[in-house]
Amino acid sequence: MAAAPSMSKSTLRKISHWLGGAAILVAGSWLGNLTSSSLSLPIPGSVVGMLVLLLILVLYGGVPTGLSRVSSQLLYLLPLLLLPAAVGVFFFQGLTLSDWLALIAAIFIGTLVSIAICALLLKKMLIGSGGGEDE
Question: What are the tens digits of pLDDT across the range 94-118?
């Protein structure tokens, strides 16, 4: 059995920052969805979650390192993640059932491909940074 590759403390620190930042975003989204559904708000849960997250960050007095890193990369890739859905909405009118199935398949596959590309880029960035100094 092969031994697991060892990682430097700097790489482990970066990974823990990324995981912490991602956990903050997921928690904000979850809290927003919970709040929106329990109060029957006409506002989507993700919007409520971002407002709650904004309030928490204002009270905290800044943005944690991990959240800053994760959100920067997500904002950079946002157009790539939204493109399949935007194309589907643009051609919304007058679709038949077969058109709807094709559109849903295209959006689903496009989103999966976008997520896979983001994952590969993240992997390359984490490996490419290697044992470099923490920023």
Answer: 767 777 788 788 888 988 998 898 8
